[in-house]
Amino acid sequence: MSETTDFDVLQQGAALVPRVGRCVVRVSGTERASWLQGLLTNDVQALAPGQGCYAAWLTPQGRMITDAVVLAEDDTLTIDVPVTLGELVYRQLGAAIFAEDVQLADEGALWAMVGVHGPTAAANISRAMVGTEPSATRLTAEAMMGWPEYANAPLGSAGRVMRLDHYGTPGFVIRVPAEARDVWLSRLRLAGATPIAAEVVEFARVEAGRPEFLVDMDADTIPLEAGIEDRAISFTKGCYVGQEVIVRVVYRGGGRVARKLVGLKLESSAVPGARATVRSERGEVGRVTSAAWSPRLRRTVAMAYVHRKFVEPGTALTVDCEGTLVPAVVSAFPIR
Predict the structure, then answer these.
(1) Which of 103, 224, 323, 333 has the fewest Cβ atoms nearer than 10 Å?
(2) Where do the domains of the chain lie, and which CATH numbers do they carry?
(3) Would the CA dihedral through 78, 80, 83, 87 be positive or negative?
(4) DSSP 3-state assignment of 135?
(5) What confidence tens digit (pLDDT) does each residue in 22-33 have?
């Protein structure tokens, strides 16, 4: 399949991403919401069943331990985190339980996650459910398209479906039992979805400005640097670990951080590697985190951390592409 065809599927159809690199920790107990409320940056306690939110877990110094998607189910909360951090996060969460009525279950091996993205993604998932469980309430495409991001619902008696517009287009992630993954991939394909590897549509994630933990954010990142505060941080909830740093930067420092994640449009088809140097006329001002060729823009797009003096859209910079300095311009997200 050509690159242009992949782009068309994402923009006009349903792109099936067979593997989503996240895993699940389940949190139960009567104090699960209040306990997580004191750990995560977003307002977990306000979630009703079927709602969800994006959040970060911070150190006392305001640096990220992980990002997380929290989904509220009928009697539990689930946290999905990067798959490579699942076991570590599970152990660290366990160490944070003292006298609270909270129980954790590491469900990383139980579930598989599959993404369906594009304007017909909801219709594709709805069609794929036909005949799976006659007694289950059907999820209609119309209802799913009206969901806010991170809204979620049961996918029959096993599994879950969540709204996630990761690629700047309507999208969903379905969580199914690991042993049923191949069956669901077949159902989704028969319902009209086209399999596409995540790296093929990386350009869309970059254009949308959706930083990924362990790629564009890490243990040295303050959420305000990555620009995720609108999605990940509640400024009206109670205390949480690392809040003092966030509040100090926002209310005393005017939100100014030393560096910021910005979009870049390169005047070239060359794709810089991670950690490629970004320069101004004065010298090095930042580093690339992600980059990809954009078939829509017909040029390379990138995300990069740059010094706060160079974050204004339209700022002219250069990016080191294997020894060649390629002109680039700062762009607001989404990159257009």
Answers:
(1) 323
(2) 1-257 (3.30.1360.120), 259-336 (2.40.30.110)
(3) negative
(4) coil
(5) 999 999 999 999
